[in-house]
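Appendix B, record 7
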Amino acid sequence: QVQVVESGGGLVQPGGSLKLSCTASGSISNLSVMGWYRQVPGKQRELVATITSSGTDTYVDSVKGRFTISRDNAKNTVHLLMTSLKPEDTAVYYCNVAKLYWGRGTQVTVSL
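Structure tokens (predicted):
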């Protein structure tokens, strides 16, 4: 009943930038915390960034200063602006809403 749809993934060179977007729709009354996770095959899914409805954000240390999370409550949308990308940022990025709902993921590949 709740749909979570990501977009914006792709292939980018080291040092480049990408902007991911995620929109939630359906039967959801309170978006509460929205966030981004990433996962590499054989590794645990890692929390990358979160943002509350009031705009308080958190980041994993490895992306601080490079990634920026933002949201538009009226549009039920969260964004992740990724700059200065490194090969180790390569992963499938997943949008999470209220710790309950997940998107299908979008591939981000940082490579020459």
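Remarks on this record: The two ends are 40 Å apart (CA to CA). The chain has no helices and eleven strands.
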